Amino acid sequence: MPGMSMYTLSPIPADLIHGAVELERTDAGLLPQRLPAWALAHCPDVQLALAAAQPSGVRLAFRTTARVVEVLVLPTKRRYGKMAPRPDGIFDLVVDGKLLQQASAPGGKLLEIDMISGATRVHPGEPHWLRFADLPAGDKTVELWLPHDETTELVSLRADAPVLPLLEGERRRWLHHGSSISQGSNATHPTGIWPAVAAGLAGVDLFNLGFGGNALLDPFTARTIRDLPADLISLKLGINLVNTDLMRVRAFGPAVHGFLDTIREGIHRTTPLLVISPTWCPIHETTPGPTMFDGKAMEQGRLLFRAMGNDAERRQGKLTLGVIREQLQRIVAQRTGTDAHIHYLDGSALYGAADNAHLPLPDALHPDAATHRLIGERFHAQVFADGVFGQRG
After folding, report:
1. In Å, how far are 14, 116, 317, 320, 331 from 246, measured between CA atoms?
2. pTM across the whole model
3. Is the distance from CB of 307 to CB of 318 less than 8 angstroms?
4. Is the pLDDT of residue 2 over 70?
5. Which residues pair with 121 in a beta bridge?
6. Alpha carbon of 358 to those of 225, 353, 368, 378: distances in Å?
7. Nearest to 57 by CA among 155, 157, 176
């Protein structure tokens, strides 16, 4: 760019990257990971690895007087069989808490996924420069939120003024764990996922461990949460356990207790801890899993989910969302006798049956963009503004 002096950072310093557990060095640059390598090694599951590498909640964050910021990124697009191509991921540029600009990175790598066999194939691609110009004058906090559902390698950063890392401890850190709903499925941009909406309204620093299909009470996830610094922790549990038909009532209670015990082992003995039961999902309120793709809908290029269990299987100990809400409420009530800092929130208070009547789940499982905002606003009102996370402690 003639006449403009640009400061270039390549590789991008780790202290500018927020929301990642680890940074994996690749041939192109840095790949933010939301689970540590040792945890992924404990579960060689393709879907888990894919979800952990998708940078939901991850952003570049710094202070600067720059009017122009450019970032070189290498995205990985996904194609599922005969389904229509997915839209390019969105990058949100937030300045002093306000969303000012959005951009996408076309091209990049291509990951082909066979939805029946699970087989994958990666095609190489080239990185792309994103340019954000005409930023407000003066000193400011800039955050570039990466796409919540598109793997993104960070190659280089340049700006027309120096960039400085944010000061540690300026905001409380909220660490949240959940399913694809928490990761942001069916949201349209990264600051539109419900945890980001709630965090923005509350002015807290989000660390999002929402993993599509993988909120499964895995011990390595509990150990990861245990060892990460956080001022506030929330766990949204249940839907994936029904989706996968992973366990019965007998195993569920001890698994939840073990998950909570692990989190409380280290630095988080008194950290406010909120257990959230599932939001409303009609196909699994009384019907157990597993959840399967609707084959006829897929032939028409639509994504739709169906519950494959039947209501009578509850007598065999199979889990439904109603059963899980009852169990989680009971478990948290039991633990409050020895843990004054644990709390329970019924997820249907964030999105319930009445909401489903006018904001139905488009694929029968995941909320749309408007519903993500509704859930985020309600979570802020019930948990941050007037609830257990409302006071600094």
Report:
1. 37, 19, 12, 11, 19
2. 0.95
3. no
4. no
5. 112
6. 36, 9, 12, 16
7. 176
